Amino acid sequence: MKIGVLALQGAFREHLSALQDCGAEAFPVRKTVQLEGLQGLVIPGGESTAIGQLMVQYGFDRALPALAADGVPVYGTCAGLILLAREVIGEAALRPDGSSGQYRLGLMDIVAHRNAYGRQRESFEAELDIPVLGATPFRGVFIRAPYVVSGGPGVEVLARHEDRIVMARQGQYLVTAFHPELTGDRRIHEYFLRLAADRADKGLAKRGSSRL
Ligand code: GLN
Hints:
This protein has 212 residues and is α/β, with parallel strands linked by helices. It contains five helices and twelve strands.
C-alpha cells in the first residue's frame, strides 16, 4: 500500500511511523506531484490555519479535491478533521485572501467545532469505545481538539466521547478528533489501510471512477 502523509506542518512523522509499523509504504507529501499513484492520504494534526494556508500556497486546494474525486481514501486527524469538514464553527480564522472563515477542503459532510474543548480540558486522554475496532477500548489523546457537531445522512459515527462525535466515516473519508499516531495502538491506522485496500481492490481509486 502506497500511502502519503501531508507534510506541510504538524504531526506527520508520527503518522509515517504508524503506517510503516502496519506494513504500508508511507512517505511525506510536500508537493502535489507526490500525490500521483497514492492509495490513501493522511492529513495530520497540527494547526489547521497554517496547514490550510500552505495547502493553498502549494496548490493542494485543487489537487486534493481531484485526488478525492478519484475515490482515494483520506484520513484527517484533528486539524485534518477541520480541513475536511464542510463547515467549521468556533474560533474561526481568516482565509489566506483575507476573507473571513476557516480555509477548508469541505470534502466531508460534517460540521466541525474547532478548539471546542475549553482551557481546562485543552489536552486530555480518554478511553474510547470504538465498536469497529473490537471490544478493547482505544486510548484517545486529545490536543486542543475539535469535535464533530453533526454529519449528513452518509456519515457513520464510529465513536463518541461524552456524547460528542470524535470519530466518523463517510465512504472514503475517515476522521478522528484525537491522535492515534501518538499512542502505540495501531488499530485505527490498520482500519484506514483496510479501507484503502478495499477501494484499491474494487478499482475505485482509478481516475474517472465514481465516488461512493
Ligand atoms: N487546535 C488545532 C486547530 O484548530 C488542532 C489541534 C491538533 O491538530 N492537535 O487547528
